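Run log, item B.
One chain of 149 residues. Sequence copied directly from the ordering sheet:
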Amino acid sequence: MKSPILFALLPLLAIAQPASAQMEKFKTGPVFEDFGPTAPVETDVPLAKDTVFKIAFDLAKGADPGKLNRSIESAARFINMHVAAGVPEKNIQLAIVVHGGASFDLTKSEFFATKKDGAENASAAAIAQLQKHGVEFYLCGQSAAAHGI
């Protein structure tokens, strides 16, 4: 008789192995080479080449010290995956609305360090690259006032 525990664990083992192997499929680019990795996705319904995206990202959670803000990276991932799928970059218009604890992720290095125990703002370079590609950032005035920004 087979152990019921073994049968219960088999699905978990099957899930765990491919997950780490699947991460190898994620690559950066074609727009952002330093961040925003995506994996190729097969689809039966390709995006039309004239597709236009106008998307707002809500960003309230600040990054962990020394790490790129996950939502900022998601914006880069959005652009990378859609350009890779054939959507012209000029057809992708993103706005990132920032409030709450994430407000500090938009600040200059010196100010960020004073609020985060000397830590470096690891999101600053990504924000600069996103802005060069037309991504707009909006800081909530109430959050800015509350945090002394």
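Observations after the first pass:
- The first helix runs from residue 4 to 22.
- Residues 52-149 form a domain with the Hypothetical Protein Ychn; Chain: A, fold (CATH 3.40.1260).
Flagged for discussion on Thursday.
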